[in-house]
Write a structure and sequence with these properties.
By secondary structure, the chain is α+β, with helices and mostly antiparallel strands. It contains 4 helices and 12 strands, in the order βαββββαβαββββββα. Strands 1, 2, 3, 4, 5, 6, 7, 8, 9 and 12 form a 10-stranded antiparallel sheet that branches. A two-stranded antiparallel ribbon has the order 10-11. Strand 3 and strand 4 form a beta hairpin. Helix 2 runs antiparallel to helix 4.
């Protein structure tokens, strides 16, 4: 049973002194991947995020910028088949790409000053039933928590193990782990009408039954109100966060088939 990634995200939260409003998602995409995005959206309203996305090395890369945050996202490419889940199969490549993007925060100096930094990863394994999903989660949740599950629905457990940064000892980081018996519903969204006047949106479920999976989400972020982080410090904190995240993945025994390369 191999766990694969549903999504990964790097987030930066600018300080008031930063120049983020002058940076567009188009410029950010070009800085990160040295090519133009396949799609770019920018609204006249400055509060609406600008978004750029494109397919890079069999992954769907995107970035979004709004006054309060900058997000760099990695997701699987959605195929035309009827697969239950579209997942990032090559976890080693994902780890390398996350490391490369984190390093670029310093070398490209994308954000002069950040108030907070964050790293998020969602991994899962599809299941046939809620009971199977619960059983898999019980196999990876530390036994010291004394949990036992059978056919219970909608299981969700979140724990935070904060740590002090070894590079910046005065900075505290949240290390949040979520164990979830997830349910997913595939939907088709149809939009019709005149964009200049009125638009009608219709949402239809493609499958009557939801898809079930065992999920683990890692969310590592700096506590607010500590200090302002320059590009070098952003890279240091996120590199350390990524190292701690992959260490926890190994401890849980996730993605056993990739363990040697991770």
């Amino acid at each position: 049973m191999e766990w694969k990634a549903l999504s990964a995200r790097i987030s930066l939260f600018p300080t008031a002194a930063s120049s983020l409003p002058n940076l567009s998602a188009m410029t950010l995409f070009r800085s990160l991947w040295k090519t133009d995005p396949d799609n770019f959206q920018k609204h006249n309203n400055p509060l609406v995020p600008s978004v750029a996305s494109g397919k890079i090395n069999d992954l769907n890369m995107s970035c979004s910028i709004q006054p309060s945050r900058l997000d760099i996202n990695i997701a699987p490419v959605i195929g035309e088949d009827n697969a239950s889940f579209y997942l990032i199969e090559d976890m080693s490549s994902l780890r390398q790409e996350l490391g490369r993007l984190i390093s670029l925060l310093e070398t490209e100096r994308l954000l002069v000053s950040a108030a907070r930094v964050a790293l998020n990863l969602h991994v899962l394994v599809p299941q046939q039933s809620v009971r199977d999903a619960n059983s898999t989660l019980m196999g990876i949740i530390p036994t010291r928590y004394g949990l036992r599950l059978w056919n219970e629905q909608d299981f969700f457990l979140q724990l935070n193990l904060p740590y002090k940064s070894t590079h910046l000892p005065d900075v505290e980081m949240n290390l949040i782990t979520q164990w979830i018996a997830s349910k997913f519903q595939k939907m088709r969204i149809a939009i019709s009408g005149d964009l200049a006047s009125s638009v009608t949106q219709t949402t239809t479920a493609l499958d009557p039954e939801p898809m079930i999976a065992s999920s683990v989400v890692f969310d590592i972020n700096s506590l607010p109100g500590q200090m302002e982080f320059d590009p070098e410090q952003q890279t240091m904190l996120l590199s350390e966060a990524a190292s701690n995240m992959w260490e926890k993945i190994m401890e849980m025994g996730l993605m056993v088939g990739e363990s040697q390369s991770l």
